Amino acid sequence: MARYTGSVCRLCRREGKKLFLKGERCYSDKCAVTRRASVPGQHGKARKKVSEYGTQLRAKQTAKRYYGVLESQFAEYFNMAERRAGVAGENLLRILESRLDNIVYRAGYASSRKEARQLVGHGHFTVNGKRVDIASYLCKAGDVIAVCDKSKSSEKIKAIVESCGARPVPQWLDADKEKLQVKVVNLPNREDIDLDVEEHLIVELYSK
């Protein structure tokens, strides 16, 4: 499966904002955006006039990088969003939020979406009692995501849950910290998604 293998800190610097791709490091003084706010590359500090297309492209790249999705899959999600009733941009974000790796991260069972993707791939989680190791699995309202019984005794899982315990869980999720499970109460509305994404620009880009 294709995946990005470069430095994730470069992605944050390219978008000029924290994408929270490295967990606790993003909240510390070691964050690359804090230390070097310029765009990576030889001409990163040069001021450039951004075109309308460039603004739309940056909006799309930001959303892709928040969720760790590559181009072809992101385009597929957009097509799904357009086919659904409602606003395409909001539908797109709702689909991205319903990914299993994102829900694992949102519930506090991983320090970043990248780590959540790895834990899901290693088979540490179940959906409605069945083990699922596909990070892009799209959950729906009523689904219950839980740490596998064998994984509950893992020192790594215990350490992650303890370190992420203070992170607030979105209202559209009902997390049970003792049972290490979370229920999708409903899929989020736009106001429930706290990411700095201008989805209307993404829609404009794909509508050309």
Word description of this protein:
This protein is α+β, with helices and mostly antiparallel strands and 208 residues long. It folds into two domains: 8-96 and 194-206, Ribosomal protein S4/S9, N-terminal domain (Ribosomal Protein S4 Delta 41, Chain A, domain 1), CATH 1.10.1050; 99-186, RNA-binding S4 domain (Structural Genomics Hypothetical 15.5 Kd Protein In mrcA-pckA Intergenic Region, Chain A, Roll). The chain contains nine helices and five strands, in the order H-H-H-H-H-H-H-E-E-E-H-E-E-H. It has helices at 8-15, 32-35, 52-67, 71-83, 88-97, 100-106, 113-121, 155-163, 199-206; strands at residues 125-127, 130-131, 144-147, 173-176, 181-184. The protein has a five-stranded antiparallel beta sheet with strand order 2-1-3-5-4, with helices on one face. Strand 1 (125-127) and strand 2 form a beta hairpin. Helix 3 crosses helix 9 (199-206) and helix 4 crosses helix 5 (88-97).
Tally of separate domains: 2
Based on Cα principal axes, name the global outline: globular
- Give the strand line-up of the largest sheet: 2-1-3-5-4
For the secondary structure, the number of strands is: 5
User: Rg from C-alpha positions?
Assistant: 18 Å
CATH homologous superfamily assignment of the largest domain: Ribosomal protein S4/S9, N-terminal domain
Q: What is the succession of H and E elements? A: HHHHHHHEEEHEEH
pLDDT averaged residue by residue: 85
Look at the structure and give the CATH class of the largest domain: Mainly Alpha
SS summary, helix count: 9
CATH architectural group of the largest domain: Orthogonal Bundle
What is the share of helical residues?
Answer: 40-55%
Kindly report the CATH topology of the largest domain: Ribosomal Protein S4 Delta 41, Chain A, domain 1
Largest sheet: 5 strands, antiparallel
Detail the poorly predicted runs: none
Class by SSE composition? alpha+beta
Distance between the termini: 29 Å
Q: Beta-strand level of the residues, as a percent range? A: 5-15%
